[in-house]
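User: Structure tokens for this complex, please. No commentary.
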Amino acid sequence: MKILILGGDGFCGWPTALRLSKSGYEITIIDNLSRRKIDKELKSNSITDIASIEDRISTAKQYGMDIKFLNIDITDYNALYHNVKTIKPDAIIHFAEQRAAPYSMISNKERRYTVDNNIINTHNILNSIVDIDKNIHLVHLGTMGVYGYSKDFGDIPEGYLNVKINSTQKDVDILYPTNPGSVYHMTKSIDQLLFQFYNKNWNLKITDLHQGIVWGTQTEETSLDKKLVNRFDYDGIYGTVLNRFISQVATGNDLTVYGTGGQKRAFIHIQDTAKCIELAVNNPPSDTNKVRIFNQVSEVKSVKELAETLTKENGSISYVDNPRKELKENDLSVKNDGLKSLGFKPITLSESLINDVKFIAKEMKKNLKKENILTSPRW
Amino acid sequence: MKILILGGDGFCGWPTALRLSKSGYEITIIDNLSRRKIDKELKSNSITDIASIEDRISTAKQYGMDIKFLNIDITDYNALYHNVKTIKPDAIIHFAEQRAAPYSMISNKERRYTVDNNIINTHNILNSIVDIDKNIHLVHLGTMGVYGYSKDFGDIPEGYLNVKINSTQKDVDILYPTNPGSVYHMTKSIDQLLFQFYNKNWNLKITDLHQGIVWGTQTEETSLDKKLVNRFDYDGIYGTVLNRFISQVATGNDLTVYGTGGQKRAFIHIQDTAKCIELAVNNPPSDTNKVRIFNQVSEVKSVKELAETLTKENGSISYVDNPRKELKENDLSVKNDGLKSLGFKPITLSESLINDVKFIAKEMKKNLKKENILTSPRW
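Assistant:
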């Protein structure tokens, strides 16, 4: 089975590429290395010393993972089209979007880059599938952030919400009314509309994975060799909350909690990201009457709970003003039956958290720039 | 009051610019003249002989309508930003989108142009407002096509649908679950998400006008002089259904009805378009907690009814295969209380239809190319 991974050099893309290659899929990565360029722009860095893409590819080969790499910007439709036509993939996995909420809220430049890049990329991919082979299964990384956190809507279902239309008393499933919290999250809401229409009009086979906040660094495959190490972001722009906490603990600093810490969020370990995507690819949707939407999450925790788990033995918490516009506190309960029905067994926080803290502390202490931790823009 | 009209050279934009100028507003038009370029690309034409934008502007001046014109492509953010900053408008009226469903379904090139152009334009406008003056009132031309035509949802409300969430038994108003029928209509659904987020995060003052199918040619102002005449599209790509019918009757040809003609749609006369926009501009929303959405429609008719009205005295109907994916028949009832509450008194079909037929027949018979009528792509 041939798989094209768009954005395969990134935090989720790289471990997924390794995992699927290890499992025997024929993998091609397309990436324009934009995430590495943004590191330079922000004067930030991965705490881990990530190898160049060339070194990653040649090292993977030594371990029997034969991955092809193409440096292409897929906002260029013709380049994308040509390569999809040549590769003839069975599935395309789409990570090729700017993925940091804080980055998308810095200024008009980043807002526009995020919208232009993400929407053009998603739309170009859909067009290449329509024009080349409507049977290609598209697997897209969405986000839990499309849902918003309103109490009125109850437990978060997988993509579709059952409602009664008051004027007609009809019960219907509708695409969950989206309420994104940043320009980045909004682009994933927009992706949903693109998928809905392209599925309706051309019956495309699409799986949208609404992923929780990813944490952790290493997977079985990235641990095989120093040169396969995954990136680990700790800064206020790209570092997800738990990874920021881990790096703060590992370097003997206070944990900085935004607001009260009463925000509940859904989390998933990076190893599970790769596993879930393998499950989705391996089990394409049989019903193409609508877009298949799964919640790709392992568990729900409040930000405060996370901070307290991490400071149980040592370290302390420092509460700072929340730079984001979001509810101070919220309840959250998320369904993840879809991936579980395919065999997903989540890694929960307690099991492996401690390994990551030790790994980050021991190997990477030298790379943390403290001034990069509280760099989130306010919105 | 200063008003910036984006796309002010087009079918709706030009009569609106004249109307508002006549009413005493200070008008600047920004347009990249893309609609004129597409005419050349499609080897099609307006049945009316439209003047160059320069002639339009200088003629308008002779009648006391002093309109400024700038030839700018607003996908160029810096150019847009610079001009919004210089002009300091109180309101921006946004017509600057590719607006033909059939055009947006021709091939990947037109699909991509429609999405890239429409989304980048809308997003650039929102960014210029955030960066320059959050009090600028944005008036956007949406479409009834965002709603879709499902029976289950009852009468079409103005943008928001009242539903009961079955899991919590809460009654809430949600943004109407969108179900666009073409890539073009989908871009207006996407615009809704952009508006929702920019309104939520920066409290922007936005009116989204979901317009019905526009028909007619002339308004009081465009009738003042030959050189002010509005464009009139009759072809299978840009001609809206009633205008295609009018031109077929006027030139002694059969009316071509797609499918059974049982599709019910909402209509509005071009003169009412300009009036409604004036009402919206004159009465900005007082509540900025959500986007204000009005349905800009005068009446509902089935395609068959339209055809029969037009062929009552002479002419005949020819039923052709429907090139579109849409319901064969549907019921439709649309609320338009918002604009009516501001004073809107719709022109209905019977009153002025006959004037347009005569006008088109007498003045413009020479310009109709019959081979352009059945040019719609299939989708």
